[in-house]
């Protein structure tokens, strides 16, 4: 009898297991939008548990006395339980349906971490045609998915995304030319664009918005690689730039070689000029052409290897850049783990710049690189974007077999291997209002003289009237002339303000190495991203898109010194427990 009571108590409370499992299945189905197989299995399991519980309850109560009365009560209890369960399920399901169909997001973070920038919201809301983001990654990065969800909320009719496992759908991956896990592609109509090769870091708003703007932009950037002085070839092979060229073409850049010795000058459609690893000095006329190109608002990328003299000292001096002819040495020893020597610095530190802003602490490789130094120049803003580790130095003597730091001849790290510079150009001179006013004022006396002459040649009785008429006409013309001059002055002032507001920028990026972007090395870690991002920044896409700032997370950690940490450990493990035992012992002794 006692055993039956225990079983009855366990059985009575086991009823709630069914509703809980059924509610879990309904919630999972409504939230994910997928009902098979897990949500449907949970719902069926919950319903089966409820049904079995009601059946067993009715069966067990038939053995008790007063079967008819008990049956009535069991029926009522079962009916009440069933109605209550169904009501709870319906209420919870209704709440879930309303929440899914009418989502409300409230960003309570300090700097609006989960809110899209106004520029992004404008671009996504005004998409001209359907856009889809393809993420080729077997594992769905939750931060990337959350970002894509926020984009889709702004325009669910035209923006969509899909995660694809390249191993499960190799045909689709081959169609997009996927080479690595984590690649992200954009597709709009017949146009496709690669956003990122590898998924080491979550997708960022800056990268995605910039790519969306590029794929819908009618503007095509023209990139010219300077040739004729031993620069890196654009074809595949040892030290070639074939992979770099292909990466630029994937982003809708037009790439062509340029030999200034055979051309009349830099083409007018050039957006970026790349000078990659010249082995001989450039002609003075070529250097002057590059200087003029920068003065006209162009973008120039210089990738200069050590132990070479490209003859660009005049250009670099104007921008406050100086190249160190020593070789950067990485003494951290981390390169040995991956089979690299000391002359291949492993870079983990990057400047706060649009080129490197999303890199975090990921690594890039710069074999045989020279440091790049800068000095302040009025009107020029410089930002070092590539830094070596503190355990590095610039070696001046590579002849000896053993590399050691010599404080007399070597330079201690960290070393800057790349720098980005900008200079705001002065607006071009335009005709001013004074010139317009002078020209029109000069014409006015001529008209007045003609009318006065005609009046003087008419000696009739109407001379006075004619004179008054002429004076009235002159006054009217003078007023019109003044109004015209004021209008012209206002228009010129407005034009000048607009020109000043949209003044161009000259952009220059200097790397102390060109090998990092050659075939083979370009595929290593972040090397491709550094090269492509540099070209994108130099081509000067829409400034409003690039101005989207990175929302940094405010650190709320308590920084404790080791002594303070030990003190807190002693307080938590020894002092406070001892105080508790001491108080307990005192109270026990006093009551005794």
TrEMBL record:
Residues 423-501 are annotated as: Disordered. Residues 222-422 form the ABC-type uncharacterised transport system domain. Residues 110-178 form the DUF7088 domain. The chain crosses the membrane at residues 12-35, 41-60, 81-100, 567-589. Keywords: Membrane, Transmembrane, Transmembrane helix. The keyword Membrane applies. Residues 474-498 have a biased composition (Acidic residues). Pfam families: ABC_transp_aux (PF09822), DUF7088 (PF23357). Residues 443-473 have a biased composition (Low complexity). This is ABC-type uncharacterized transport system domain-containing protein.
């Amino acid at each position: 009898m006692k055993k039956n009571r225990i079983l009855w108590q366990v059985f009575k409370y086991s009823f709630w297991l069914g509703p809980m499992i059924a509610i879990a299945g309904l919630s999972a189905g409504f939230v994910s939008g997928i009902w098979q197989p897990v949500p449907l299995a949970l719902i069926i399991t919950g319903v089966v548990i409820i049904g079995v519980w009601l059946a067993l309850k009715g069966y067990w109560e038939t053995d008790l006395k007063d079967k008819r009365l008990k049956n009535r009560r069991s029926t009522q209890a079962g009916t009440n339980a069933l109605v209550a369960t169904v009501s709870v399920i319906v209420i919870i399901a209704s709440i879930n349906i309303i929440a899914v169909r009418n989502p409300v997001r409230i960003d309570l973070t300090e700097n609006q971490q989960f809110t899209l920038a106004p520029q992004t919201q404008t671009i996504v809301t005004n998409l001209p045609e359907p856009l889809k983001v393809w993420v080729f990654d077997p594992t769905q990065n939750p931060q990337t998915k959350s970002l894509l969800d926020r984009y889709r909320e702004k325009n669910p009719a035209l923006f969509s995304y899909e995660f694809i496992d390249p191993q499960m759908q190799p045909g689709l991956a081959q169609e997009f030319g996927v080479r690595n896990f984590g690649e992200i592609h954009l597709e709009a109509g017949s146009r496709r664009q690669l956003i990122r090769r590898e998924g080491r870091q979550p997708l960022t708003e800056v990268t995605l918005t910039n790519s969306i703007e590029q794929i819908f932009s009618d503007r095509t950037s023209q990139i010219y690689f300077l040739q004729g002085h031993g620069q890196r070839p654009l074809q595949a092979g040892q030290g070639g730039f074939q992979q770099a060229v292909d990466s630029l073409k994937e982003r809708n850049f037009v790439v062509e070689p340029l030999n200034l010795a055979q051309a009349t000058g830099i083409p007018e459609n050039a957006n970026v000029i790349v000078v990659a690893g010249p082995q001989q000095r450039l002609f003075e006329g070529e250097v002057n052409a590059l200087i003029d190109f920068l003065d006209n608002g162009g973008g120039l990328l210089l990738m200069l290897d050590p132990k070479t003299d490209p003859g660009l000292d005049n250009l670099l001096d104007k921008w406050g850049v100086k190249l160190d002819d020593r070789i950067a040495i990485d003494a951290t020893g981390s390169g040995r783990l991956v089979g690299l020597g000391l002359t291949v610095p492993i870079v983990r530190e990057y400047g706060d710049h649009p080129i490197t802003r999303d890199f975090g602490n990921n690594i890039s490789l710069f074999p045989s690189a020279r440091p790049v130094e800068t000095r302040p120049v009025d009107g020029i803003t410089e930002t070092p974007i590539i830094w070596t580790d503190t355990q590095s130095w610039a070696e001046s003597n590579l002849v000896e077999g053993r590399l050691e730091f010599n404080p007399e001849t070597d330079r201690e790290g960290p070393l800057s291997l790349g720098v980005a510079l900008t200079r705001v150009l002065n607006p071009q001179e335009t005709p001013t209002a004074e010139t317009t006013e002078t020209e029109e004022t000069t014409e006015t006396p001529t008209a007045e003289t003609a009318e006065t002459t005609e009046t003087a040649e008419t000696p009739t009785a109407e001379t006075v009237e004619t004179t008054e008429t002429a004076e009235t006409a002159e006054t009217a013309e003078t007023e019109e002339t003044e109004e015209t001059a004021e209008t012209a002055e206002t228009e010129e002032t407005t034009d000048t303000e607009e020109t000043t507001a949209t003044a161009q920028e000259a952009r220059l990026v200097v790397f102390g190495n060109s090998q990092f972007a050659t075939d083979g090395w370009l595929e290593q870690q972040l090397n491709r991203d550094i090269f492509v991002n540099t070209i994108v920044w130099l081509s000067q896409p829409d400034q409003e898109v690039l101005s989207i700032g990175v929302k940094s997370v405010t650190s709320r950690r308590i920084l404790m010194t080791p002594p303070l940490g030990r003190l807190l450990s002693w307080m938590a493990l020894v002092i406070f427990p001892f105080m508790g035992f001491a108080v307990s012992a005192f109270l026990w002794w006093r009551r005794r």
